[in-house]
Amino acid sequence: MGTNALAGRTEMQITPEITFEGSEPSPAAREVILREIERLETHNQRITGCRITVIAPSHKHRHGVGFQVNIWLTIPPHENIVVNHSATDDPPHEYAEVAIKTAFASARRQLDDLAA
After folding, report:
1. Residue 57, by phi and psi: left (phi above 0), alpha (psi -120 to 50) or beta?
2. pTM of the entire structure?
3. Is residue 58 part of a domain?
4. Domain that holds residue 85
């Protein structure tokens, strides 16, 4: 598998859906998501679908609330694996890229638990 961020996408049966809510799509965040999807695919080749939603913090409650990242994975014969990484008071989660990496790390742990 190459280092091209799109290389891993050809293995997935369904093109990943990436959406941003409450903010403009960030090219840097999208690149992190594509790299993390590729990592997931090398972690578990049975993934057939993936949806990611990145939700920006509300401007009304800006202090202490970071990004929320939701990941839905389809892995036969299981229906779906859902990872909801909620916003935290941790300052690094004020950045979408950090919240995305943390959510995907949680997804990999769930995949490991599923395989055990």
Report:
1. beta
2. 0.77
3. yes
4. 7-115
Long-range (24+ apart) CB contacts under 8 A made by 53-58 are 53/19, 53/20, 53/21, 54/18, 54/19, 54/20, 54/21, 54/23, 54/29, 54/96, 54/99, 54/100, 55/20, 55/21, 55/22, 56/20, 56/21, 56/22, 56/23, 56/96, 57/22, 57/87, 57/94, 58/22
User: How many distinct structural domains can be found in the chain?
Assistant: 1
Task: Give the mean pLDDT of the chain.
Answer: 79
More confident residue, 111 or 116: 111
pLDDT reported for residue 28? 93
In a domain, 2, yes or no: no
Give the C-alpha distances (Å, rounded to integers) separating 13 from 21, 23, 76, 105. Answer: 25, 28, 11, 22
Tell whether 35 is covered by a domain: yes
Q: Residue 42's domain is classified under what CATH number?
A: 3.30.160.100
In a domain, 1, yes or no: no
Q: Which residue has the higher pLDDT, 46 or 105?
A: 105
